[in-house]
Fold these 4 entries.
Entry 1:
Amino acid sequence: MTQLNITAKKASAPAGGTAGATATAPFLEVRDLTVKFPTDDGVVSAVNGMDFALERGQTLGIVGESGSGKSVTSQALMGLLKGTSAQVTGEAMFQGKDLVTLPESAMRQLRGRNIGMIFQDPLSALHPFYTVGHQIAEAYLVHNKASKKQARAAAVDMLGRVGIPSPEQRYDEYPHHFSGGMRQRAMIAMALICEPELLIADEPTTALDVTVQAQILDLMSELQEETNSALILITHDLGVVAEVCDNVLVMYGGQCVESGPVDDIFYDTQHPYTLGLLNSMPTLNSAASRLNPIPGQPPSLLDLPKGCIFSARCQYAELAGDGVCASQRPELRVEDGHGKRCHLSGPQIITIRNSR
Amino acid sequence: MMTFILRRTGSLVLLLAAVSFITFTLFQLGPSDPAAAACGQECTPERVAEARVALGMDQPFFVQYFDYIRGLFSSRMIGAPGAQTLCEWPCLGKSFQTNENVADIIGRSLPYTFSMAIGALILWTITGVGLGLLAALRKGSPVDKFIVGAASVGVSLPIPVTGLFLLLLFVNQLHLLPFTTNEINSPFGPQGPGAWVANYLLPWIALAVLFSASYIRVTRTNMIETFGEDFIRTARAKGLAPRTVTFKHGVRAGITPVVTMLGMDIGLLLGGAVLTEQIFSVPGLGFTAVHAAISGDLPVTMAITMLAAFFVIVANVAVDLAYAAIDPRVRLQ
């Protein structure tokens, strides 16, 4: 499996053997992460060998359509798949601990304290029967030896920091009293109350309208700067990625198909799938009246194709010749921190880019 | 919350008035002639007419209804003019059979019904919710399959079958328990709580087998659904202990349908478990109602019917209030 180092500005990456948290080891290093779900219909291969690394203070965007394995990846990192039927293999080194093999009890100590998570759709992610403040204070009390009064003070302070007006009063309100944007702010307050070093945000702005989206993204960036935490931002919104991410990882069929610094992904796109994604984005000045989707359906995770997972939908598959796209799964090739999983050569890709 | 309680209580009073009126009307329109029943075996048309006057049946319908309702608030005179007797508050009429005040008959039966209902209720709630939760936590495992299977068997066993089987086994064969006696109707009686439990244990088990089956299924289904909710994932993501996630976050949210069922079942059961009381010869409300109905003792039947309706309505309101206590969103409406 090719070793990918996304830490763009730092050139060095240890090739294997990062058992301890040495000074050179990345803050988070995921290698060959694989998640399979056995079902009655067969084994669902949700994530198929993910590799990436992340440093503190950086933001990694994971992009892909529904069912591409983005959320499952994040849940595997959080250890939320422990105790389910999911089979997680590979390695995810975080502060010298492998999140994949760490027992649930130890994982529980990390959750909330060292790794925080912000979920999509805060209305369903917050408990409807407890006040917002109670839920935030609860997150504080799990990992801090504090009285209820101290926890309340911490929660009120955090609500204020995420920009909720009159936090003292809002503390005692229920999630259904909050607006969508306020709920997401509360969710962020809950994830950040223990100041985790790693924050995973799973489509944090999907359920929000555009102006609120911008506010929430700004807030997350601000708080990230304050605490110098690492952020994994899972989204299908390329606009969001362009705005806040340092590095991008494009997922398709549970695999990383392209990865690299955000500018490379947008301006030096190397994979036909990423091209398709960019092409399907509506723009204000485009004359086309219809959206430009990628034709076809994502592959069934029950029965992945033998060759390139994207080959069935790729309009350039015949360019590679010999039917190699249909018969052989491409490896992730990394050049200058920019990785792609495609049989097409660089010049071929450039020709394709220029032709559209 | 206070306005919510007041509104619910207000609707309770209105409902009770409506139910009492409907019940009263039904019994007036019913095929049985109270006068014929009251005058006994050797009846002549004259005696029936006398009985009609004695029962106040010569009065217009609404006068009869309001007389009846008046009895709920104060003592009143009852019987033919000149031969009136005092019917003390709360007056629900007098038994055709024994001329006893109906309220006394009900007062005598209630402790038996309460004794049976309370124990059965506790037993089936614990087993039903407990096993349902266990099955949900171990979804798909042999434990789950066994519990669900047992629930299917339990729900298809009628009370006469379980009841008679329990009596045969524990009383007749093993001699572990005494046969139910009428002398015990309270845990605070002279025989003590132990004897009370021993006396009612078999009816409790018979009822619990029947009821807990549906509680297992409802609890299991709802808990499985709740454990799949986003807020459970959030609770885990905070690093909460599994027990806190399961009980504080899961059970609190998933238990509401069980509260509804419980309320309805309490209401129904307090109106008298007819079959169970028959089989175990417990002279509770159901038992009394059946005997009154067979012998055409209209005032007793009517009073028990109204009381049963009253219990169901009160239970309904109690469920509403419990819902509001559990789910803050309900208080908004």
Entry 2:
Amino acid sequence: MWRYIVKRLLIIPLVLWVIYTITFLMAVSIPGNPFKQGERALSPDVQRAVEAQYKADDNWIFYWQYLKGLFQPIKAYRGLGPLVDLGPSWQYRDWTCNQIIGSSLPVSVGLGLTAMLIATSVGIPVGVISAVKRNSWFDYTSLGLALVGISLPTFVTGTALLIFFTIKLTWLPVGGWGQLSHLWLPAVTLSLPFMAYIARLTRMGMLDVLASDYIRTAQAKGLSQKKIIWKHALKNAFLPVVSFLGPASAAALTGSFVIESIFNIPGLGQHFVAGVQNRDRAMILGTVLVYSTVLVLFNLLVDITYTLVDPRIDVEKSGTK
Amino acid sequence: MVVTQDNLKEITAEMPGMVSSGQRSRPWKRFRKNRSSMAALIILGIIILACLISLPISAKQFQQQDLDLNRHPPQIIDNLAPFGYDILGRNLLWRCLFGGIVSLGIGLAAAGIALMIGTAWGLIAGWYGGRVDNLMMRVVDILYGLPYVLLIILLKIAFEPKLISLLNKIFGTGQERAANIIILFVAIGGVSWLTMARVIRGQVLSLKARPFMEAARATGLPTRRILIRHLLPNLVGPVIVYATLTVPQAILQESFLSFLGIGIQAPVPTWGSLAAEGVKAVNTVVSFWWMVFFPSLLLGVTLLCLNFIGDGLRDAFDPKTRH
């Protein structure tokens, strides 16, 4: 098990390097850069000097310089710079990407964690109950609601919640960030689609497991229904949910553009989009690498959880999932 | 029973998992018994029919503006405008009906692309296994690792100008709108095939290990025949299910891109862009609710129906979940 984890951790830099290279190639293929779009045209010499400062004039040099900056333990040890240097932003020239991401990522992580907590703590019980009481009114209602959660764009559900709770009921502030009351509406909006998927996956997994032999054995032994459902069955029914939770948490924790723009939240999601729209190459690479790192780590966590939940699954043999 | 070359085919025909002619109609029979899925199918049919029948009118009317009527609430008596007017005084009824065609077109195109690439990719990876499988699935993993919004935006920015000049060369000037729609179709389809590839690969891997496949190989059937006659029919179920579930996802993705302002360009409407426009018009003093409500209602109901149908198909094709 430990050997497997170490092996996977060693592959991570390789995966990130591939993602870095692909993203770099895509970013280079976009025409234009933010240095040409100033308020007034710069003289050609100044323009060239600015581009040279940001390594925008030579893609090859930029590629290696940026790559080197991504992991610089010696420099960091001597106190000459951060361990991971995502470079200066091309668009916001007084800021480094480290500063921008460092200030916006915690906001997104806080929001995303709350949303995932809401999603799992509602979705799993709902899924279990609707599987146990299959074809009851509870099952149909929760399935229908889950489908509604998947079928509406978040900007519609978000706006609807916003109007209802802030303007009609005036229970909560309209937007902004900084107080606990600012957290609820965006977190709930963000959690809705995840909640719906989790409830559906739990229900499907539970239906499969409840029909299996070992549950019948447990029933024959005379175990209480409660213990069978919540302990024996849920443990195995949980597996598909776990593999969904990996990528879903990665997406939730690195910010959502829609939620941030509706509720006016200074998260990371806006920088994904703004980076591309501004042709801010350092920002594109920085945000993609942050997202990919989180995703890769969560996928590793998922595979480890698999073996913990079901020891029969041998991740070392089946390879990376 | 002694297994010989002669009776092996008869034996394999009886084996579970093998699709024989009698079983083909069973999923449909099961699907028809599923009341919520049938209701969804009928409602979806009505919406599609309404969009198609009104197309000759809506194609002309969707960009007619009357600035005097801007943000006018729904009315039926003076003008036929049960959905009200948008910010430029365009009748939302026609815009919603025409937008339906565009939205559903995007969904279908994306599902078609996902179907073709995803099935081929998954089939090859699962069939050859080993190193090929490993390599192909790592490609899928890495594409999963890139945030898809970024992928779509990059595809759009990088290839749209090239496509416009190419189309202008072939069909004459003024092909921007066509290029924009094609790029969006391809971009959304291009990120939708990943799930399909994973599902098909998993299915092929599990089918390959089943006794009836072994029997087919043992009888000495050529690979092509095994693929076409024995493997593909067993993949029809998951392919149909995931293609159905790709349609609503693609429509949702387009609505998200519209919200970003990089979806289908104005004045061509989609349900997503109409809802996004409506959301942006909402303010604390007057909520122009009809501008959000009707496009969202159509979008939501359509996606709900598609999801219900997809679920129904899954239950129908996969007898394991049918308890």
Entry 3:
Amino acid sequence: MKRQYAGTDPLAGDFYTRQFEKDRGEHTLVVNMGPQHPSTHGVLRIVIEIDGEYILRADPVLGYLHRMQEKMGEVQTWGQYIPNMGRVDYGHPLAWNWAYVGAVEKLMGIQVPERAEYIRVITCELNRLTSHLLWWGAYILDLGAFTPIMYSFDDREMLLDILQRPTASRLTYGYFRVGGVRKDLDDRCIEMIKAFIPRFRSRLPMYKDLVTDNIILRKRVEDIGIIDRDMCRRYGCSGPVLRGAGEPYDLRRCEPYSIYDRFDFEIPTEETACSAGRYLVRMAEMEQSLRIIEQAVEGLAHAEGGHIMPKAPKPSMKPPKGEAYFAVEGARGKVGVYAVSEGKKVPYRIKLRSPSYSNLHAFAEAAQGTLLADAVATLGSLDLIIPEIDR
Amino acid sequence: MMNAIDVHMLIRLIIAVVAAMAWVGINALVLVYCERKFAGHIQRRPGPFEVGPHGILQPLADGLKLMGKQLFRPAGADAFLFWLAPMLSLLPVLLLFLPIPYGPMLTAMNVSLGILLILAFSSLNVLALLLAGWSSNNKWGILGAARAVSQSVAYEIPLLLSVLAVTFMTGSFNLSAISTSQGAWPWQWNLMAQPLAFFIYLVSAFGETNRAPFDLAEAESELTAGFHTEYSSMGFGLFFMAEYAYMVVVCSVCTVLFLGGFRGPVADGWWWFLAKTYALLFLMIWVRWTYPRVRFDQLLNINWKWLLPLAVFNLLATAFVMKL
């Protein structure tokens, strides 16, 4: 039997394509962007209806990387769950580490030693830099320039070398513990951080000159993929997407957790609400992260306490009955963990609030009426991490 | 009855086409190596380094790997057109090398309408891209093909007009004549008399050869691989070779038209020709590894709103000056 193809055969395509095809216009084409598409960075799938190259409708299809992270929380002990937090968002895993241990600490009423807080800030900000560098390189790659990612990975490599010393890992960190962190920052690590800061400061203007100010890049990202305040509010966008819309909402400043109130740094915002705005916000954030790290390294020298509290809870800890929500500012936005304890070794429920999930859904509206190439530029500017969307 | 001169011409043509094939093959190998090495150094890495000293045998290894792969045709693809397309993209290129004067005595066929021959046959490439995209029964392929057609059609016009401006000055379509009409020193080249035409030609050349920042037909981050999404093995290999061959052709023609061809300050010859051509090729590689891709409407806007009016203006100005 001769096989028929999508559009003529009612059985062609899967459930989502068939549902999507129902509302298809007369002279349009429905294409699947993903799950194996070079610019969806993983297994995100977006069904798109295009007229010529103009996008009429877009619909993200999720679930290709669903790993039941939340269910796993209900079958592992409180301590065993920490490594999972390194795998939800491979871009900025320490934010997830922090959100989780923060929630557990809140449940148990633990006060973390000052030194541990400083170490958390330093490593988390370093990790934010690696995340933004990864995004930057990959985003420019989406826009068709191959070279910048090599330069960004050059810097990222140094950061990974630094983070590798205390965390013993280069990508999926499980470094934080309830009551502190796993290992202290040694002298060599501090030296490396101190050497990295001036080097990276001198690299940022180079990135600006070579890439950000390039006219082709500017024309590709400016006024593309408008996500304004109202849209952000409706979809629950946070992080650089929200700050790119002009809203200076940053948990480190708005709901200061840990010791962030001690540092002097700015919350960069852009009023343009387009891809360029989000791009510039992230570039400016890298500079601010450097400022925080610089101050934190100074503060670390005379911080009190150890890297973990004495008699820290064991992995088999039993937090008292109750529930707690703890949110931190991740590289992509508000990272929240909601934990419910019934006083047992195993959590009753863990709920993960991931910023990528909310940010992604603004895409369908932002992409409407734009060109296919603009959709790529918009999608990239949201800085999505797929395992974080599907969890 | 064939007389002796016809036989002589036929043998000459066959030898020339075979030589052109070899030339395309060698250039593809050299350019692949150059491109990868050059890209490597731009990106702060050594580039290919494992196969042979400094990775010099890498293109051969690449070629072998490509040939060893399965030739795959997707279900629902039009078999005849699907396989015709890669051949159609490479075969016309061989003819393009015939009228190019590499040296004072080194021209395969000294045709009086050489430049016209090149422009005519190079347009066939569009047909190949369209066929490839359409016959592979792939939506991304169709999009890539549509882009390729509108892009090539658009950029051919300013290219043609800039070439015409040069032929106005020389009064000949013969590439040898155009070469010899220019002096030995850079300031005697057409580049000095026609800087605008040179610029337009160069930009259009990027568009014609589908090279970054105008590589929209195969924009891998948008269209997966555009028109050659479904091609594997040497099906893809032929497109690849054709792309490099077209690069060599447009750079060779540019050398002849604007950079004095084989003329040089000392000792005219093919070495000057090669040096200039490769300098232009390096420029193309350099641009590819430096710039992001433009968007499709921007690409067409650059052409219709800037290049075309400029080219027309340049042509009229040239005609006016020549008449004076």
Entry 4:
Amino acid sequence: MTLVIDQRPRSNGLTATALLAPATIFVAICLLAPLAILFRYSLNDFVAAKKMMVEAVTVANYIRFFTDPYYTAILWTTVRISITVTAVCLVLGFPLAYVVARTQSRFKHLLIILIVLPLFVGNAVRAAGWMTVFGSKGFLNATLMGLGLIDKPLEIMFTEKAVVIGIIAVNLPFMVLSLQSVIEGIDRAVEEAAFSLGAPPLTMFRRVLWPLALPGILSGTILTFILAMNAYATPFLLGGPLFKMMAPLVYNQFTQQTNWPFGGAIAFILMAVTLTLTVAANLIFQRRSAR
Amino acid sequence: MARLDIRNLAKRYGDFYAVRDVSLQIADGEFLVLLGPSGCGKTTTLRMVAGFIEPSAGHVALGGSDVTRLPPWKRNAGMVFQSYALFPHMTVAQNVAFGLEMRKLPKVDIDKRVEEALALVRLGGYGARLPRQLSGGQQQRVALARALAIRPDVLLLDEPLSNLDAKLRQEVRVEIRELQRQLGLTTVMVTHDQEEALTMADRLVVMNEGSVCQVGSQRDLYERPATRFVAGFVGRSTFLAGTVEAPGRFQTDGGLNLACSGGAPGRAVLSLRPERVEIAATPLSGLDNRLSGAVEFVSYLGSLTDIHVRLSPADRLVVQVANREGGLAPDVGQTVHVGWPASAGQVFNE
């Protein structure tokens, strides 16, 4: 009996280790190791003439990125688009998430499936679908011109507009699901209590619903922002050859230019900017709501 | 505080009436309790008074002015929710201050009234705590303080005690009742707990299937239930099914011929309160109905004992006796004699 009790803590520790190990090993091998290698590459030199990487320790690649307006413009575009997309997703997603969270309908599960459904279609396939809708001879322009509402096709395809619309469509489900799960945990009676105490709906939202939904708002915006910053297929297919965002740029450096050092540097700049903006936004958000 | 008038209030969902044609007048300072089983429409009625549900028909008037079309935030009704619904991200003081801020009172007045309200529910000094740092009973009192701080025209209580444990519930009942009297609050409370209803109310409303069955004092409902439902829901009753043969004569389905008062000839049930039936080991005398039967089941309840007596294959009667020294304590299977005056039973025609 004593023996069993003595062993328990140790066997619990072993179980925990056994449970943690597979995921830890997976993360180490598949995420940390490649990142470490890539970071090392980003400090290497590149001989453009021979298209060859040369061993070195230099920050020249990082300096090159930040001193060339071509690249900083791409970073700025990426940040601007990500912020726009995140803001629009929050504004569009909140009411939808609220309705889904509060509905008593027996079709609630169907509603959730409908929201998730777009995720079943890959980004590339979906972007191809958008191309047929937004193209100059696409569904939208054909319809509007057929109805005589416009006489020249709208320039949507291969513009920033198309990319923003496309990423919003991809990211909205993530925002809605994050918000919905948190709103569902907020007692409906709390809203009614605010009403009965004299708060009109907007005041109730500002004073009660928003602060209580904040964890969901944070996780939803973080998720949406990161996904937008790293979007690849949507900007590549809907933006066209002249439109550039960071993820396609990284890919281009790796495959077209075979410039691994510069590609690696861009990847790390993208990661650092995403992380910094996310953390900064969180701090501002939380400080403001604490007041 | 103000008078509350509910006139012909109804709520329909498709073909289903959650509430049908409810009319009630609650006087200034009166404590009215809506009592009924779950789904009887009592909560829907309360929520229509609060303004959370729009009635399909009828009117609600507070202090003489019609508020039927007003949203809840313009009604000045203080509500205490079953879950208390405290704002979890605000301190106790911020919770209580919320309604006062909505009324745009100066900061000094708000602080003063928050303090008063918290003192009223004996929670002075708890203002800086968060709701989750309080016990259930304390949270309930914060909810009450928050509803009272706005000096509501009417106080609405939605099963306010159902989340408290039994011992605490008895204390809080008395506390709420005393506070209500002291402040002269016009109050409507919803409950399914008849003991709670009986101890707290000035007047009770028994509801079933969306309609009001009976309105009256505790004594009215217990002694003169208007329907078979009320007789069964308020207090306990044994129901014997049978037929009224002629005025004053009732024959049970088990073939017993009983004397009764009232009732029209035809199918009916005879309702008997368990404590109005006399029981003895030897034959009784001087009662309109005298019967005997075997004891089938005995349950000892401390101050009382319930004795179930089989009178005929179809008729079983519950008799309640007070436990005192030398009182009847029959065993299962023993033959006992029971009896009651005709006036003790009440007949409900079907």
